[in-house]
Amino acid sequence: MNKEVNVDALFLGPKSENRVFYKEMMEYAITEHMHWRSGFHPEDSALVTPRAQHQPDFRDTLYRTEGILRDLSSRLKNKSVPWFSPRYLGHMNADTFMVSHLAYVMTMLYNQNNCAVEASPVTTDLELEAGEDLCRMFGFDVSKSWGHITSGGTVANYEGLWVARNLKSMPLAIARHEGAKDLVAGMTEHQLLNMKPTDVLDLTDELKKRGMFEEVRELSVRGAGVEPGKLGKLLVPRSKHYSWLKAMDLLGLGQENIVQLDVDGNYRTDVQKMRETTLRLMEEGTPILGMVSVVGTTEEGSVDAVHEVLKLREECEEKFGSSFFIHVDAAYGGYVRSMFLDENDQFMEYDALVATYRESEIVPEGVVWPKRDVYDAFKAMSEVDSITVDPHKVGYIQYSAGAITMKDKRIVDLISYHAAYVFEEAGEDSGDEHSVMLGSSIMEGSKAGAAAAAVWAAHRLVPLNITGYGHVIGRGIVTADWFASKLATAEPFVIQGRSFEVRPLMHPDFHMVNFTFKEIGNDSLADHNSLNQRIYELCSYASGRAYSKDFLTSSTSLSVEEYGDTPCAYTSLRGFTDEEWQKEGSVYILRAAIMTPFLRDEMRFSQYWSNLRDIFTQILTEIVDEENKKAMSHSAA
Question: Per the database entry, which stretches of residues form a coiled coil (predicted)?
Fold first, then answer.
């Protein structure tokens, strides 16, 4: 049975509160490595002699090394963003686990390269174990699924589209091969391009039995290529990450084959419009290469209705005999699924989940989380084809550590390569199910085994369920709820006779809170955008040293080019006319990912909010003073 973690013991802490333990373990990691070196074939003589170590150029080299490191430390301390501090509420960053730092440093010294097992005999296993952890968290059958660590969500998204592309083209390749085309006899090209992903993988099994899988695979898009647009459209929400545009470019599928789906007032994919678009494409006979749902949009933290996408695919299969690949981009929100799993990693029913939150004090009375549709979306993730997730976001693990998981590991055969100089097949009697060459089955080549060790270590200490990550992530969710509620009810800020009101964009799906300030009585959207942009400049690294900032945040613009007229609902609530929206075409938003685990205490948060109001007052005063000076300067001129 898992023991519940003590969250405060996981981090170095905003004031380095756990410094003693951290230093002890860091010294242990380095000392153990030095013992390993000195103990390897002790009969070998030392190759760096005391005489050499006392030479002037030797000492000079060490002094210069020290000087470089001191310079680096100065630069890092002077200009880095303090992700660890509750004063930072911006991007998807926060303090990270000590165990991950220590595991990374410990493993880094051994310089493991997870491209090939012979270069990473330890960390290849750790990476695949971490992949299994993530597959289990998403509800995949671990014996049939596949997951591994990437450099980030961008590469993971590339791999998701890569497998979708190759899968889509395999039936066409089968139909071209003389020895295999009987498997799809009588099927039209339209039918070949609209098969269920599982049916295509079943055909690849038959090809392997016949010993012609590699031959047929070379007739697919990876070998013979395919004409532009042949494989159909990729449907993505307007809230998509820009990596999907890059992926369509890099994989030769063409950005013109992206169909953007409108989002609703909660910045989730609009289910009704998604249905209309999909069914129209089906009726036109246009294949759908894949459908992307986002669990944790980059700008709003919104959670798409994954369950509705699955229902839509089933409807298309029944009505049109046509199917498509479903990928969930959960780079931001993927780890939140751990909050829905009990101590045995089983997905809990809604009422039992809420009751457990109350009993464990993960989500207190007065905070309603999760919303029922958010719950349904996370539950449905177990039925999709592939999922992107970033341990270096809500996994609280340092960069760089993204990940991709696939429900059916047979799909990896469609992208795998084998280079004799790097990759060796594991012997049949090796007894090690993890003995694979990662480099032959993924997009990247050389990759740090230390990153895999960092993820693996975090998963060993912090279970991917309600007893572990549930407590860590829950702290941020509760704090975000409190923060959004304070913004929604905050009294105006009165500065030199002018009043400013702050309000959230919406109540968050988990812990991204967007908000804006508006001067009461000023109904110019252009002035509103300028005000919030100036607030951002005064609350970000953009204008100088982070040390000089009392509060740090991030920002974004919700424009008509990216979101259509969806943001108009918010601007209307803030008192701006439709004409103002049409004239400006965008609204500037302040953006805060409330990931810090250190404000989950009502008294502490109350004091934090009081201090934050003072900071906002100071910032608004500075802006008003700037405007007054400009006005005086103009009048004098």
Answer: none
